Amino acid sequence: RYVKTVDQILRIMNNIEQIRNVGIIAHVDHGKTTTTDSLLAAAGIISPRLAGQVLAMDFLDVEQRRQMTVKAANISLYHEYEGKPYVINLVDTPGHVDFTGKVTRSLRMIDGAIVVVDAVEGVMTQTETVLRQALEERVRPLLFINKIDRLIKELRLKPDEIKQRFIEIIKEVNNLIETYADPEFKKKWILDPSQGMVAFGSAKDAIGITVPMSRKKGIKIDDIIEAYSSGDKEAIEELKKKIPLHEALLDMVVRFVPNPKEAQMYRIPKIWKGDISTDLGKALMEVDPDGPLVFFVCDMRWDPHAGFVATGRIFSGTLYSGQEVYLVNSKAVQKVLQVGLYMGPYREVVDRIPAGNIAAVLGPDLARSGETIVDLKIKDVIVPFERMRYISEPVVTMAIEPKKTTDLTKLMDALKKMSIEDPNLIVKINEETGEYLVSGMGHLHLEIVLTLLKERFGLEVETSPPTVVYRETARDRSQIFEGKSPNKHNRLYISIEPMNEDTIRLIQQGIVTEDMDPHKRAKILRDEAGWDYDEARRIWAIDENINVFIDKTSGIQYLREVRDTIIQGFRLAMREGPLAAEPVRGLKVILHDAVIHEDPAHRGPAQIYPAVRNPIFAAILTARPTLLEPIQKLEIKFPMDYLGPISSVITKRRGRILNVVHMVGNLVKMLAEVPVAESIDLANELRGASAGKAFWGTEFSRWAPVPDSMLLDIVKKIRQRKGLKPEPPRPEDFLSP
Ligand code: GDP
C-alpha cells in the first residue's frame, strides 16, 4: 500500500500525462461498489492525516440496502505502471439514465470508463443505456467481466463454457461500440482482450487478470477456475496476491484511457457548444493551465464540516483560493475560499490545482450541479457546458412535518441541503397549511429521504400518504378563443395544440431552450421536430413544464409593451391547469390576434393575466383534455418458476409486460411498465410473489394518458384533495360573455 503526501500528489497532478479521469459503468448489482471498494483498499492514496482510519465509501447503510450507493463525488487513486506514478480520478457515474442530466454531466468529467458486467447476467439495460451515452460523448470504454466465481460455483460451467461466456459478453459490448462509437474511434476502441482491454475476475475476492498480465505472471484463467471449483481457500488467497484486481484494472486504465490532453482535443468539440477556433476554444482543447479558468461542476454536496462543496473538472486554467469567479448559470460573482484535491475519498486543501484535474471547491455556494464557473475576464463570452435545465420531473409528493415542533428549523435546513445535493428532490412550502411538500422520483425515493432525515439529521417526521403528480394536456388542436380582460379593454385571441414527441424531447434534453438564439432554435425545431420555420421563429417563451408560447400576430399596437405580462400570464396558467390544477404539459399556445389598450393603467397584470388564462383554459377543455400519469419502468430478474405469479402482479396493477428474456440457468429478466399510481407497495408484492427471489430496479419511463374510463374519477379525487369542487369546469366557464 502506497502512502503519498499531498505534495507528491500535487506534483503528479501538474504533469498532465500522468492523469487519468475515469468512471465505472455498471448495471445495478453487477459490482460497481465492490470494485470501487477494492480499488480504494488496495491502491488508495491515504493522506497521512487519515492513515489508520477505516476507509468506508458507503457511509450510509440504508442506501446500500436500497442499491443506491451514496459515494464520494470523486476518489483519487495512486498507481504505478512500469515504474511511473499516475493519479487516477474515479468519478462517480450514476447507474441509470434519467431526466436530470446527471449521467451526461458525469460523463463529461471522464475520458474513459470501466464497464463492469456480471458474468452470469451479461449486458443489461442500464449497462447498455449508459455505455451508449458514454460512447456518444466520446468516453472510451474498457471491460471488466466480474463475478466469474458465479459461473463456476453457481452455474457449474466447464472451462470451455466459461470461455464461451466471456466471448459472448465481449461480443455484446463490442456490438455496442460498433453501433454507437464515432467512426474515427471504432477501430481503436473495439475491445481486444489479447491487448489487455478486458479484465476478468471477482471483485468480491479482489482478483482480476488480463491477457498480458496472464502472460507476464504465468497465471491462466484455468488456474482461477481450478481454484474456485475446488473451493481451495488457500489458492484463492494466493491469487489475491498474484493477480490483484486493482492492478488489472488500473494498468488497463493507464494504458488505454487517454490523458486529459489527448482527450480534450477530441472531446471538447463534442461536449462544448462554443467556438473552438477562439482563444478560449484553444485553451480548452489544449487543457492550458495558463488559459482562462473553466471549471465544470458535476456535483454539489453539503459537508457538515465545510459547507457546500462543488466538485468538478478543470477544463482550462488554474483554480486557486482567493480567486474571484463567475457562475455562468447563476449569473453571480463569488469568491473561491478553498481549493481541495481528493486523496482517496477525502479532500485535502491545497493552494492551486491546474487544468485536467478534478477539484473540490468551497465558496461558490450559489452553484448547482451542472454550473460552469469561469474567470471574470471571460464572463461575457463563455458558452457554458450546460444551460440550467428545466426539467426535473418529480412524480410523487408527500407532506411532512417534524414530530417535535421545535425541530421545524432543523427540518427546513436539512431539506434545503438535501434538495441541493439531490436535484430530483423538490421541496415546497404549502402556504396555507405551513407543511413541507416533498416531491421525488417515486415511492422508493421518498422512503430514502425519510430514512436519511432520520439517520443523518436525527429528525423524526410525520408524513401524509404520498400522492402521485399528474400533468394536464390536450390531444386535439383547438379553435381560436377570445380572452377579454376584466375591464374589456384588452382582447387576446388564442388557440392551443399538442406538441409532437420530438419537440418535447428537444426541450427536455435542454437542446431547445428559452434563452437560446432564436434563429438557431428555429432551425433545430425545423430540422429535428418538423416545425414550420416561421412559426418556430416566433416563440416567445418556453415554460418549465414544456409548453411553448408563440406569437403569430403582426403589427399589433402596444403588444410589445405587454409582452412580458402576457408571458407571465402564460406561465402562471400552465402551472395549474383547468382540469385538476395540475401542471399543463406539452402544449403549443398560439396568440393569433390582439387588441391592447393604449393606456398602461388599463393593461396591467390584473387585466392581462385573465385575458391570457381564460382562452387557454377554454381551448384545453374543448380539445380532448386528459391527465398524463407517470409510468415507471421495471426490470425484474427472477427464477423462471415465478413467471406466473410475477406476471399477475404486473398485470393486476395496470402494468404491461414488454419483454421476458431467458438469461442463464433458470433466471429470466422481465421488462415491464407500471403506472406510479399503482406501484405503492409493489416491492412487497413482488417479494411475496417470488418467495423473496426477485430483484428489480425502477426508473421513470414516461408520461402517458390515464385510461379514459378512469379520467373523471382521478380528476375528482385530485380536486377534492385540493379543496376544489369535484366537478371540473366546462369550457363555457372561461368564455367571455
Ligand atoms: P453495485 O450495485 O453495482 O454497486 O453492486 P455491488 O458492488 O453492491 O455488488 C452487488 C452484489 O454482488 C453484492 O452482494 C456483492 O457482494 C456481490 N458481488 C460483487 N462482486 C462479486 C463477485 O465477484 N462474485 C460474487 N459472487 N458476488 C459479487
Q: Which short descriptors sum up this protein?
A:
GTP-binding, seven-stranded mixed beta sheet, 737 residues, 35% helix, alpha+beta, protein biosynthesis, elongation factor, binds guanosine-5'-diphosphate, 24 helices, 32 strands, eight-stranded antiparallel beta sheet, cytoplasm
Radius of gyration: 28 Å
**Approximately what portion of the residues adopt beta-strand conformation?**
25-35%
Give the % helix: 25-40%
Strand order of the largest sheet: 12-11-17-8-9-16-13-14
Output the number of helix runs.
24
Which residues sit in consecutive blocks of at least 5 with pLDDT less than 50? 47-70
The gross shape turns out to be globular
Average pLDDT, to the nearest integer? 89
Number of strands: 32
Distinct bound molecules: guanosine-5'-diphosphate
Q: Give the N-terminus to C-terminus distance in angstroms.
A: 82 Å
Structural class: alpha+beta
Most strands sheet: 8 strands, antiparallel
Oligomer: single chain
Written overview of the protein:
The structure is a single chain. This protein is of the alpha+beta class. Helix content is 35%, strand content 27%. The chain has 24 helices and 32 strands. The protein has an eight-stranded antiparallel beta sheet with strand order 12-11-17-8-9-16-13-14, with helices on both faces. It has a seven-stranded mixed beta sheet with strand order 2-3-1-4-5-6-7, sandwiched between helices. The radius of gyration is 28 Å and the shape is globular. The N and C termini lie far apart (82 Å). Guanosine-5'-diphosphate (GDP) binds next to helix 2 and helix 6. InterPro entries: EFG_II, EFG_III/V, EFG_V-like, EFTu-like_2, P-loop_NTPase, Ribosomal_Su5_D2-typ_SF, Ribsml_uS5_D2-typ_fold_subgr, Small_GTP-bd.
